[in-house]
Design goal:
Oligomer: heterodimer
Distance between the termini of chain A: 45 Å
Number of helices of chain A: 3
Helix content of chain A: 10-25%
Strand content of chain A: 15-25%
Low-confidence stretches of chain A: 1-40
Largest interface: A-B, 59 and 61 residues
Number of strands of chain B: 9
Radius of gyration of chain B: 23 Å
Mean pLDDT of chain A: 85
Structural class of chain A: alpha+beta
Number of helices of chain B: 5
Strand order of the largest sheet of chain A: 4-3-2-1-9-8-7-6-5
Largest sheet of chain B: 9 strands, mixed
Structural class of chain B: alpha+beta
Shape of chain B: globular
Largest sheet of chain A: 9 strands, antiparallel
Low-confidence stretches of chain B: 3-7, 9-22, 50-54, 63-68
Strand order of the largest sheet of chain B: 1-9-8-7-6-5-4-3-2
Radius of gyration of chain A: 19 Å
Helix content of chain B: 10-25%
Order of helices and strands of chain A: HEHHEEEEEEEE
Distance between the termini of chain B: 77 Å
Chain lengths: ~260, ~270
């Protein structure tokens, strides 16, 4: 089933149908009643409970991708075989992990498992994750339909549509290229990969939680989920010019979990 | 008498209270209306659509610096002898390279210099506008620049390809100040700069939201004899941003890798 090409590309911002009236009303009410220093921190463009803007940084060093319920990764027979092949290839050097070797985008969900900070920006039509590591950009567009894969090439970060359910941003990403692994150990995927995401602030806004649900019938017998948690770090500025192999931020404060 | 003093002090305090409050208000960073902030988002594209004339001052660099390696006369006229010598050397080198592009940061898979690609966006760009941070998202090479709103530059600034940008609103104009550039960053191919390069950008949305007007001012005692200013425009575009990965395509010069970083150094 192929969706018709959108007559209005979802990237177009100023005509986005998402919440203009609500945002406009909010803007009017804010400008009518607020003054003082606090105003600078309020975002009149988006509802306060649907604003993920900020710098977020994992407090613990990410490890290999694991199901959050503690179970084993539900590989299909073919998936298990492919994973073993990739692992052997990475070990022998026959396969090069280009995300690590030349800092290509890592794809999802691997990008979420980063020891480096993330700048998130919420604007009226989308939320954007900018990952310091490998300069990766993840656009979560508030759209109902994916871009038509007939006209859009597969990409490392895929094509993401998202919507808010209360204070949770619910996203769905498809149309990945086959150049990425799901984690540094080489968990493979097919072109059927779909990564769902439920993203919300927790702990009174001090932390950001991403639950990624991985679905790929060629590789896994059923969808499974991994969880990533980040601390809010207003004291940190995300660097935007990552150059592969050059000195990066000190991440020794990010605790290693045995 | 003691009581009188206290009363006087209290009266004085009361008299000062509104003044203090208005001072606090004056210190609160100005922010334009939500509608204006929203109008900055885009996407924008520097390439004029059919029937439109790309509007920019004669001083501005060409829309594409990739195939046209001449500096605008206004820039060339302002080069210090050192910068001029480097430019001529680069130009000479570029003229001898027949089948491949000359050694520029982008041809070496480095992030583009912030200003260069913000100036000549042949690809779509967006301004991810929030009150605290504005992301300048350029499709070319998947780049993002972050503009930290209503802040000072840090004292211990580490040079970077995009430099460090702080911004504030003056009325409905977004003003961005950037310093701390890596020596490898170039806003025009062949332009070298010193450690004190400063770029001030002023952005306005005009023509009822259809056009983004950008004015750039470069000052650098090492490379420019006087500030170089020009204006360029971008148009509201319906072309959405796509993923653009430079790192894997380049076979002309080595891309940096995890073992050795980049070997690129500017032509001096």
């Amino acid at each position: 089933m192929k969706a018709r090409a959108l007559s209005r590309p979802p990237g177009r911002e100023n005509t986005s149908s998402v919440g203009f009236g609500r945002v406009f009303a909010l803007g009017v009410s804010l400008s009518a009643c607020l003054f003082g220093a606090a105003q600078a921190q309020d975002n009149p463009l988006v509802p306060a409970n649907q604003d993920l803007t900020g710098v977020w940084w994992a407090s613990t060093m990410p490890t290999g991708l694991k199901p959050m319920d503690g179970s084993a990764i539900p590989f299909t027979a073919e998936g298990r075989k492919k994973y073993a092949e990739v692992q052997a290839g990475l070990k022998s050097g026959k396969i090069v992990d280009r995300a690590r070797d030349i800092c290509l985008p890592q794809g999802l969900p691997r990008a979420f498992a980063t020891a480096y900070p993330i700048q998130v920006m919420t604007i009226p039509s989308q939320t954007v994750f900018f990952f310091e590591e490998n300069r990766q950009v993840h656009h979560l567009k508030y759209a109902a339909k994916h871009n038509d894969p007939e006209f859009w090439d597969p990409s490392y970060m895929g094509d993401t549509i998202a919507h808010w359910e209360g204070d949770t941003l619910v996203a769905d990403t498809t149309n990945f290229n086959d150049e990425s692994y799901l984690d540094p150990s080489g968990i493979p995927h097919s072109d059927k990969l779909r990564v769902g995401q439920r993203i919300r602030k927790i702990n009174g806004g001090k932390q950001l939680e991403v639950v990624a649900t991985i679905e790929d019938p060629d590789i896994f017998t059923k969808p499974w989920s991994a969880r990533f948690v980040y601390d809010r770090r207003d004291d940190v500025r995300v660097a935007t010019d990552w150059v592969c192999g050059e000195p990066h931020r000190n991440v020794s404060d990010v605790k290693r979990v045995p | 008498m003691h009581t009188t003093t206290m009363l006087r002090a209290a009266a004085l305090g009361l008299a000062f209270a509104p003044a203090a409050m208005s001072q606090a208000q004056a210190q609160a960073p100005h922010q334009p209306s939500a509608e204006v902030m929203r109008s900055f988002i885009g996407p924008w594209n520097g390439m004029a659509r059919e029937g439109q004339q790309r509007q920019q001052s004669a001083d501005a660099p060409p829309a594409s610096t990739v195939n046209d390696r001449r500096f605008p006369p206004a820039l060339e006229a302002r080069l210090t002898p050192k910068a001029k010598a480097a430019y001529l050397k680069f130009k000479d080198l570029a003229s001898k390279v027949v089948d491949k592009e000359p050694p520029t940061p982008d041809n070496n898979c480095l992030p583009f210099a912030m200003a260069g690609e913000t100036v000549s966006t042949r690809w779509p760009m967006m301004l991810l506008v929030t009150p605290t941070v504005i992301g300048i998202r350029m499709q070319i090479d998947n780049q993002v620049r972050l503009v930290h709103m209503n802040q000072e530059h840090p004292k211990d600034l580490k040079p970077s390809m995009h430099g460090h940008s702080v911004g504030h609103w003056e009325g409905d104009t977004l003003v961005i100040d950037t310093i701390g550039f890596d020596e490898r960053a170039q806003f025009n191919d062949g332009f070298i700069h010193g450690p004190n390069l400063r770029v001030v950008e002023r952005y306005r949305v005009i023509d009822g939201g259809k056009t983004l007007e950008k004015t750039f001012t470069y000052t650098d005692p090492d490379s420019l004899t006087e500030p170089y200013t020009f204006t360029a425009t971008e148009y509201q575009s319906d072309e959405p941003l796509q993923e653009y990965v430079n790192l894997q395509n380049n076979q002309l010069y080595p891309c940096p890798n995890a073992r050795e970083g980049s070997k690129y150094r500017p032509v001096q």
